[in-house]
């Protein structure tokens, strides 16, 4: 049976400074430090287990250009289990590990609130007319892109080639409900003005079917083999094709459908005839086809539209649910998650096949397109008018009052109150709960933290390392009593039987 | 996550898709409402937009990330 789909999202925000010259690295650091300092969330990230150069296919290409780990920039771990840091030249928030798509949406939304609070605090420190502004988008319209990456727990037993082949079909075609929409094109061989509007922010930037890079020659399937958990049992599929969404329902569909498709692949239930011939070109074909009517060639020669392929994947998913159930995407807190994803998936595809009516308030590219078309018509503008590109950018503007997606009546999944709570409280069905609780209880004793371990300085003897190699342990259910019974980190270390932990190698599954 | 979040964050129990005979009517009504809201937004959007769109768009330059 498929593994429970532990999942999360990493969002890089676009950043500009206005009224003063500042490098984006400095501006991003100011944001992270303004937030971490204000909320005393300046626990350092531990880079010990970062190996972005490792390839899931078990080899390294000589000319491959793996991402570098930058250890000198602002970097903190928050009490909700998230990581907030500067990646290259952008502020980035990684949600904590979640068990359901709904929780990923909740923590992605909490991330937006953290960014807004950071801007507020940073700008309060700056002189008048100086401002740092962020955008939750993926490109500057000039060929520079930054990512919104998803991560999913998959079984190590599943051959990576098989995983890559089938998930590619989903990645190419899910754009029709995941895309955030973009005015124009940044693909070099496109003639100017031939693409006035496309479905995806990111589709222009994919040049390979599979590979290790994330910044150049971007591949549809990223092979980074950095599981941040027990490498004998698990993989972390690192997904780089997605757009950052303003619509919570779009994020929900993106994570929900992808979790189900991965479970189907693990259980041999993905329709094996749905393999796309030439997925790199198909990515762009789908993104440029706002009528969703262009045919894509499958490897056995058949022609299907993106919408037809999505309906076939959905039907297989419904059959999979009838046969196996969807416990892999449900949790105790969200027992109907799988069913809800399937229902929304079908509703959305049905709406898309009828021109999108019914999904204007859930699908970003449709909402943005309506706004741009209406503004263009009202003001009688040429398709390349700068005001249309400005609308595109401001759809993603993180300033309250300036964000245009806020004005498009997008359906909400998360209340403001829940988003505020999730800024500080961890999800409870993964190890993020343990990380978050330790940071809430004993921040002054935590020397550093990362996805799979915490290091405590208990003030007596060596630093104590608590490894967390099982993403599904360290949950509220498994650790609540432990936290009740321990009043100091040393008591925690002793209760876990880790008094010699700096010397030993063991797994958290041995102690919880 | 607190109890409070668990209770409030979930899609309503009833199925979001039901076979409703006048589904087309419901959708048309929704579309009309959205259209009215869009018209209102268009009336005030120039006060929200950056004052010099061309300068703004040209100066929005990012470094590649990831």
Describe the structure.
The complex is a heterodimer of chains A (512) and B (66). Chain A is an alpha+beta fold. Chain A is built from 15 helices and 18 strands. In chain A, strands 4-5-6-1-8-13 form a six-stranded antiparallel sheet. Chain A is globular. The C terminus of chain A is likely disordered. By secondary structure, chain B is mainly alpha-helical. Chain B has a domain of 27 residues. The longest helix of chain B is centred in the middle third of the chain and has 22 residues. Classes of the chains: A alpha+beta (512), B mainly alpha (66). The interface between A and B is large, with 70 and 40 residues.
* Largest sheet report of chain B: none
Give the proportion of residues in helices of chain B. 40-55%
User: β content of chain A, as a range?
Assistant: 15-25%
The value of Rg of chain B in angstroms is 21 Å
CATH topology of the largest domain in chain A: Creatine Kinase, Chain A, domain 2
Give the tags.
heterodimer; A: 512 residues; alpha+beta; Creatine Kinase, Chain A, domain 2; 2 domains; six-stranded antiparallel β-sheet; four-stranded mixed β-sheet; 15 helices; B: 66 residues; mainly alpha; elongated
Task: Please describe the topology of this protein.
The complex is a heterodimer of chains A (512) and B (66).
Chain A (H helix, E strand, L loop, with lengths): L6 E6 L1 E5 L5 H15 L5 E2 L29 E3 L5 E5 L2 E5 L6 H25 L5 E5 L12 E8 L4 H14 L1 H4 L3 E2 L13 E2 L7 E6 L6 E5 L11 E6 L8 H19 L12 H9 L7 E3 L5 E3 H19 L12 H16 L11 H16 L6 H9 L21 H7 L9 H10 L4 E5 L2 E4 L7 E4 L8 H10 L3 H7 L12 H4 L1
Helix pairs in contact in A: 1-2, 2-5, 2-11, 3-5, 3-6, 3-7, 5-8, 7-8
Chain B lengths: L2 H6 L14 H22 L8 H7 L7
Short description:
Chain A is α+β, with helices and mostly antiparallel strands and 512 residues long.
């Amino acid at each position: 049976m498929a593994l429970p789909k532990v999942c999360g999202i990493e969002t890089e925000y676009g950043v500009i400074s206005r009224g003063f010259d500042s490098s984006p690295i400095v501006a991003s650091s100011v944001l992270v430090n303004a937030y971490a300092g204000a909320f005393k969330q300046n626990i350092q990230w531990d880079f010990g287990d970062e190996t972005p150069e490792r390839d899931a296919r078990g080899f390294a290409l000589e000319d491959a250009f793996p991402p570098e780990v930058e250890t000198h920039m602002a970097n903190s771990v928050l009490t909700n289990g998230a990581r907030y840091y500067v990646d290259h030249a952008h502020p980035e928030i990684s949600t904590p590990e979640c068990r359901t798509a709904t929780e990923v949406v909740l923590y992605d939304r909490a991330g937006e609130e953290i960014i807004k609070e950071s801007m507020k605090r940073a700008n309060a420190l700056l002189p008048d007319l100086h401002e740092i502004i962020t955008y939750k988008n993926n490109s500057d319209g000039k060929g520079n892109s930054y990512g919104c990456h998803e991560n999913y727990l998959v079984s190590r037993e599943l051959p990576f080639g098989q995983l890559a082949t089938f998930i590619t079909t989903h990645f190419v075609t899910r754009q029709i409900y995941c895309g955030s929409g973009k005015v124009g094109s940044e693909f070099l061989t496109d003639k100017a003005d031939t693409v006035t509007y496309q479905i995806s922010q990111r589709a222009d930037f994919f040049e390979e079917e599979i590979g290790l890079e994330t910044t150049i020659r971007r591949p549809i399937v990223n092979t980074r083999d950095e599981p941040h958990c027990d490498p004998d049992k698990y993989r972390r599929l690192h997904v780089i094709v997605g757009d950052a969404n303003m619509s919570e329902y779009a994020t929900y569909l993106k994570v929900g459908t992808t979790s189900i498709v991965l479970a189907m692949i693990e259980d041999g239930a993905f329709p094996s005839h749905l393999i796309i011939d030439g997925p790199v070109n198909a990515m762009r074909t789908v993104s440029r086809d706002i009528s969703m009517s262009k045919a894509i060639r499958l490897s056995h020669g058949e022609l299907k539209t993106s919408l037809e392929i999505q309906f076939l994947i959905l039907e297989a998913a419904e059959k999979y649910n009838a046969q196996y159930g969807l416990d892999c995407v449900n949790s105790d807190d969200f027992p109907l998650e799988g069913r809800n994803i399937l229902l929304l998936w079908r509703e959305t595809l049905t709406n898309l096949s009828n021109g999108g009516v019914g999904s204007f308030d859930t699908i970003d590219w449709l909402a943005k397109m309506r706004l741009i078309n209406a503004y263009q018509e009202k003001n009688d503008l040429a398709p390349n008018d700068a005001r249309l590109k400005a609308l595109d950018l401001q759809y993603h503007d993180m300033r309250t009052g300036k964000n245009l997606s806020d004005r498009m009546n997008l359906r909400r999944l998360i209340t403001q109150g829940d988003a505020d709570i999730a800024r500080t409280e961890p999800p409870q069905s993964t190890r993020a709960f343990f990380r978050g609780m330790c940071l809430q209880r004993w921040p002054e004793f935590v020397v550093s933290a990362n996805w799979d371990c915490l290091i405590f300085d208990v003030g007596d003897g060596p630093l104590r390392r608590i490894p967390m190699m099982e993403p599904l342990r360290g949950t509220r259910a498994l650790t609540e009593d432990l936290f009740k019974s321990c009043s100091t980190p040393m008591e925690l270390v002793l209760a876990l039987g880790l008094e010699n932990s700096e010397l030993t190698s063991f797994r958290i599954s041995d102690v919880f | 996550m607190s109890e409070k979040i668990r209770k409030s964050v979930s899609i309503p129990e009833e199925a979001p898709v039901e076979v409703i005979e006048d589904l087309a009517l419901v959708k048309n009504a929704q579309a009309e409402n959205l259209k009215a809201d869009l018209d209102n937004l268009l009336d005030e959007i120039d006060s929200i937009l950056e004052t010099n769109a061309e300068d703004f768009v040209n100066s929005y330059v990012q470094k590649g990330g990831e």
